[in-house]
Structure formats: C-alpha cells, structure tokens
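Handout, section B. The chain below has 741 residues.
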Amino acid sequence: MNKKKMIRLTALVGVATATGVVAEANQAHAATTTTTETTNQTTNASVESTQAAVDAAQSAFDTAQTSVDNAQANVTSASNNVTSASATLSSAIANKEAATPENIASATSAVSSQAVVVASASQAVSEQAGVVSAAASVQASAQAEATSASASLSSASANVASATSALSAAEAALTSDQSTAANNLSAAESAASSASAAVSSDQAAVDNAQAAVASAQAIVDAVAEVQSSDVINMSAAYITALKNYLANPSSANAAALQEVAKGADYVKELQQKFKSDASLDVVDPSDPAVQEALSVYAVNLINHLRNQYGLTTTFGASAKANVAALDFVKKYYDYENWNIFGTTGSDGQGHNKNGLDAYAVQLNTSIAEDAGSGLTTWVNGKATMATTTLHNLLYAVYSDIATMLFDDGGTNNWSHAQSIFEDGTILGTDGFNNVYLGLAFDKYGYAHYELYNATEGNQLGNNAYSLDVQTASQTLLTNAQATLASAKASLQRMTTNLMVAKAAVVAAQDQLAALENSSASDLVAVTAARTQLESAKTSYQTALATYQQKEAALEKANDELANVQASLEAAQATLATAKAKLAELEETVANLTNADQLLAAAQAAYEQAVANLTVATGNLEAAQVDLAKAEAQLALAEEAVEQAEARAEIATQVDQQLNGSNANDRQSAGQDATSLKTNGRALTATVATASAANPKRGADQGRLPQTGADNQEASAMALVGLGMLGMATGLYGYKKKKLTK
C-alpha cells in the first residue's frame, strides 16, 4: 500500500517544544560543556523508537485490510446465495400453483407414455447391437482372410523375385560359358591361322629367296658366259671414219662411214655369243638386281668403245639412275601409251621430248635418251615380257649398242654413235660432265638408255655400282644366298610355331568340348530356372486373384459394419433422447407431487441466505472500522518518525553552534530564547526570512560567525529558530496522514 504523506512546512523544523527550547537555552548558561555526541544519542534513540511504532502500525493496518477483503468476499458470496435462493423460491411458488390434480395426472400419464417410448428405443438398440455384432464377426473373418491372402501374395511375389534372380544367374552363367567357349575357340583358331599364315609367308619367302638365288646364279652364269667376249671391237678404219664424220658430218663423210660400217659382221658375233637357252628362268626387267646387271653390262660395253675411240672419261651406273629411268619410262611412255617404235620400227612416235623436258626440270639436270629395239630385235627373234630371260636381256643390250654403231645411218644420222663418243656434251647439249646411265624397258619391250648428268644436288651418282661384272654378279649371288639362308631359318622357326599352334588348336578343341558340356549343364539350369519362374508367376497370379477377392470382401464387410454401426449409433441417440425426455417428465411429476415440501425448503433456504448476508454485511462494516483505526494509527506513527528525524537533525545543528560559541554568544542566546517566549509570532516570520536567506554553511565553517553585531544576530536567529519549532509544535500539533491504496 502506497501512502502519500501530507506534512505542513513548519513541521519540518518543529522538533522541540517551546519549553524544551527555553530550558536548553537556560541550561546553556550553566552547562557550557554539553557535547553534540550526548544530544545525538538521545535523538537517535527517539527515531528508532518511533520507527518501531510505524512498523507495528503497518502490520496492524495490513491485518485489518485483509479482514476487510475477506469480509467483502463473504458479503459477495452471501448476496449471490440470496439471489439464487430467491429464484428457487419463485420457482417453488410457481410449481405449487401448478400442482393441481389434473396437472399431476397429466404429467403421470406423459411419464407412462414416454416409458413405452424408452422401452421401444431400448429394444431397437438391443436388436441393432446384435446386427452390429454379427457384422463385426463377418468383418473380422474377412479381415483374417484378407491378411492371409496378403501374406500369400507377398510370399508368391518373393518366389517370383527369387526365381527371376535364379534365372538371371543361370543365364549369366550360360552366357559366360558360351562366351568363354567362343573366345577360346576363336583364340585357338586365330593362333592356328596366324601360325599357318606365318609358315605360308615364310615358305613364300623361302621360295622367293630360292628364286632370287637361282636368278643371281643365272646372272653369274650369264656374265661368266659373256665375260670373255662382252666387248664390241671397232676397226681402225671405222674409228677414223667416225671421227671424220663427227668432226664434219658431210655427205661424203657419212657415205665413207657407212661404207666402213658395213664391213662389221656384228650379226654373226651376236649369234655366236647369245644362243637361245630355254632352260633359263624368266626374269623381270624392272627387278633392281636385273637392272643392275644390265646397266653395268651396258656401261662396260660403252666404256670399252670410248676407250678404243681414245676417250679417257667413262660413264657410270647407279641404283638411283636406274630408279629414275624406270620412273621416267612409266610416267611418259607406259602411262601415256607412248610407243616409240610402233609395230614395224618405222611407224612409232619417237622420243617423248616433252616428257624429257619435264623430267629434266623435275630432277634439275640434263637428260639425253637413246632407245633400242630391245626384246623386239630382228636378229634373234622377238621375246615377250612374259617369257624373257636374263639371257634375252643381255642379248638385247648387246644388240642395241652394236646396232647404234654399225646400223645408225639413214634418218638417225649416227646420232646414237655420237651420244656414245661425245665428251662433256651430247648431241650439241652441254652439261654432261659426269654421265650416269639408267636402263629400263617399257611395256612394249623397247629398251631406254637414259643418260643423266649426275651432280651433288640430284645425287644420281651416289652409291654407284661396281663395274666389275663378275664381282658384282657374285656379290648379288652371295646376298641372295644369305637371304635364302635367313628365310630358311625363319621358315624353320615358323614351322616350329606352327606345330605349337596346331597343338594349341587341339587343346582349344578339347577345351571347347569341355565348355560345350559345361554349357549343356548351364542350359539345363536355365531351363529349370525358367520352369520355376513360370510356376512362381502362375502361383503369384493365383495369389493375386485371391488377394483381390478377399480385399473386395473385406471392403464390403467394412462398409456393412460401418452402416450397421451408424444405425446403432442412431438408435442409441434415439434412446438417449427418449430417456432424457422421460427423466424430465418424471422430474415434473415429482415436483408437482412434492410441491409443498419443495416450497417450504425453498422458503427456509431463502431466509437463511438473507440472515447470512446480514451477518456478512455487519462483519464487513466492523472490519472497515478497524481498518480506518489502523490507518489513522499508521499515519500518526509515520508523522512521529518524520518529526523525530527532523528533531534529531536540528538538535545536532544546535549542539554544534552551542559548542562552538563563546560565553557572550551563549548569554545572547539565552536572552533571545527568553524573548522568544513573549514574542513568538513576530519572530516566526523573522526566522523564516533568516532561514531562507542563510542556508546551512559548509563543514569547513563548523559554527556560526562570532564577531561584532553579526555574531549577536546569528545567535539570536538560532534561538528564534528553536522557539519557532516549539511554537509550531504547540500551535499546530500533528496532521493526520492521508493513506491511499
């Protein structure tokens, strides 16, 4: 509870009666040794005593307030009871008025009728409960059957899954074994095929090597045959006539040269040196070894002629020159179908000059070409590319060069002979300082003798052939024999590998047979797994149909049970309504029958409620009186505490001034106090003015001023203050505090 304190302003300084102040002033003259400590002890004890009184008063006030609150609650309750009893009494009066014999009879009849209704509703509930019980039994049975069907369906589904897994595993095993069998068989067959192919390849290599040896041997034999007579000898008269013609190609010199040339019986020499030998092997004129033998043979013939002619420079032969010759002939004669001599030797297209110019640019060198009848010679019969032998080719070279010397008149004007015996130039074209000959046959069988000027740039003279025919042919044979030996060794290895591969084939076939047996077993497992799966699927479909049937039955039973339960609930609701109506009618009969007793009881209850309200109201008023007293006592106690605190504060200030003043000040103070008794009202205003103008000084001053008139005024004002305090206490007393909740 908050309490607002209402205290007069003058009460703040009223802490002593006028008598007390005067007494203190009189005593100040005699007891100048009174100390501030003694005064403070007295006032402090007074403060503590009055605070204890406040606490006691506050406790009494709180108790009284609680009593008031309780009494108020009792009054409210009693008032409510009176209201309720009044309503009950009114109802009892009305009931009494309605309690006629006719009404009682009517109400009793209504009760009997309603009892019949209740009995009928109860019977309906009993009957419907039986229906519900039967439906619940059907539903429980349907639920059990549906649960069993669901379990069977789950089991059938699990069996299908298991059978499917078993089939997948069996099929995987079958596939794996079949794949393994196929792979092993394929690997075995591949190994056997590879080994057989390797043997066949090496056998072909051996056959080729043997053919190369035979060819090399034929070259050696052919070279040995012509070694002693592989030169063409010119008579001194021929050489002189040729030189004269080349120096001055006049008609007379040409006729003289032609005359001398007729004397050379080169045809007889050819027939003596080259006899047909059908036992010799057919060779390919474009084979590098054959090209080498022919070009070396041709260069040796030419160099021997140049030596007879008196020249010291020689022609050379090389593989690059032969390759270039073969490439040129293919490009500009074979591919372009260029027939240099035609079918009769005089209806041909001649040299392909454009081709020569283009190939010279390609090789960046000078090129001259001589051509001969080659295999179509009219001396030894015509040979074809399919039947030619090295013997035929050597004969063709010898025949071509001899013909260029002794049968080169007419339209040729000895140009072939001129190309053989010039030095540094060929047919008037400079730039032939290092001549290398490349020899190739075209597809018509004609021989082409390509004369190149070899340089460091075109490298046509690099890796030149040895012109020692016998040594070159023997080296060719040695190399061919070494190749044959290597091929035979490889064939032996491959034959061994073939034997191993054949054994692997046998092993693979055995493994295949075993894998086929395993696959057969796997196939049986797959068939069994498929049968099991089909059976499981059939069982699943049966279980599914049963489950669906039982689920439908369960759903129907659930619906039926729900319907009959709804009917039961409706019947129960009807019964409850009928019973409630019956109870209401029975209560009406009872009320009418007992109207007098009910009215008397209601009247007594009402009177008792009124009496209780009267008592509660009296208790409330008494509690409120006690609360007012406690409130007044609390206000007085709090006022006393404030007065005691103010008195203690002023007493402390007075003690400080009395202890610090001289004898004159104390005497003046006594006189002022005496004056205060007689003229208190006038001095009250003075004290108020002086108090407002002179607030309490700081602790460093300790006492009032003590010199001159100021000292006397200060002492007088102090005593006036004390007097004013006493007068305020005497005139006004204490003001009762106003308390607010």
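Note. Residues 3-26, 672-741 have pLDDT under 50 and may be disordered. Compare this with the example in section A.
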